[in-house]
Amino acid sequence: MWVFSASGCRWLGAGGSLAVAVGGWFAGTLPVRGGWGLWERHGPAPAVAGALLAYLGLTLLVAAWWRYGVLLGREARGGAPGGNGKAVRGGASAGNGEAVRGGVLGTLVCWTVPLLLAPPLYSADVYSYVAQGAMVLEGHDVYGAGPSVLGPGDLGAEAAASVGGHWTDTPAPYGPAFLLLAAAVVKLTGGAVVPAVLGMRLIALGALALAVWAVRGLGGGPGGRAGALWLAVLNPLFLIHVVGGTHNDGLMAALVLGGVLLATRGRWVLGSVLVGLAVMVKSPAAVALLFIGVMVARREGGGARGLVKGLVLPGAVAGAVAAGATLLAGTGFGWLRTQSVAGTIHTALSVTSDLGLGLGLLLADDPDPVKDLVRKLGLAAALVLIAVLAWRSWRGLLDPVLGLGLSLVALVALSPMVQPWYLLWGTAVVASVAWYGRAGQVLAVLSAALVYETAPSGRTPWYGFAAAAVVAALGLLWARREPWRAGAAEDAGPVRAGSTGRPASS
Known about the structure:
By secondary structure, the protein is mainly alpha-helical. Helix content is 63%, strand content 0%. The chain is built from 20 helices and no strands. Helix 1 runs parallel beside helix 3, helix 4 crosses helix 7 and helix 8 (225-232) packs antiparallel against helix 17. The two termini are 35 Å apart.
């Protein structure tokens, strides 16, 4: 059937994306005021109808994406359906440049365009971004107070009124570079909600373009660039939460990917600059510096001198970028003390928070000390895993780029606060070198499941978790029946001494 072809997937997904956008006009995270008559709340009945339409569209988008991935997976192992070589548009292999441009990139455009003018979807975080940018312009201490300090006559007051719940009084956990971007958007738009949100979406589109460039440059590993783009940016989790929800995680991930690409090409100083900027968006990007250091150390021959150089110099470059961005923004170094503020909020996706709370309720009258201990143990375990992956990369047993991706996944899995879109941190990196393998397949299943966890309004209803569980179960059954085994990129992965840190097979 045509709908099961790559072309059919493109238009099925485009229809799904359009339904998500239209549903969002009635059930998205609409502003409390300042919607200009465009993004306005319409009452309970239209909101329910919009939510149902958005969920239907999301399901079509996920189904189209999943089927496209199956086609690319079969192409990667040389088993194109029907024997006609047309699993990917253009009749070329998944790694062929023409197939990427005419297939995945064309599909990406079709799935992205419907979301461009939609109101914020699945999260109200963009209102915090706008309000924090306004706080910078108004001279407020963005690291000492939340958006609630903005008065009725201040820039960004309308956005501040739409900030979700506990975030109203929460200081910014983001770095000065991102706050400078947000402040520029507020200054250019006068802080009006609609143009300010669309301005932040332009930044998200820039992140999307940077991610596409970097993923293509890194090559995708076995199976080629088409599959890498499929998992990294065609991913509904990316489209819904980075383009639709304008989360800055997309910008952080794109800068990390760009920095890593430059490091693999020997331009580690410029790569460290990009990663330093990524850290000035969100601090978890700092993990990339360790793996750029591994690449530097291996390029120097892997001896003690190279190890010291790798451990010190990328961090020094990124530190200089951080200091410069902080001084340029004029926000001070308060970002150093606000990195843990998000961890004070309990999210149901955090395994360590849930486990800690459960143990605390069983073992103590006050569960908080036990919960805090379990959270700290989780972070310690994540650091140990990251160290092991870095050591294996330095020894030449693992591609450093893959090691970075797996490290970011481990950090998210063991963090005290986890949101669905956090999975993108590691998924985009893993996709860039090893999409067709066990890790890539599991991350694809998790992406398809987690996209259901949040409602278009930004809430996290019980049925979102139920839908995610069903999709995860179906995905794992598929992965067991049709496993992706790339071999070299994940399993053997010996790295040539003195190389850029990529496996010999790639």
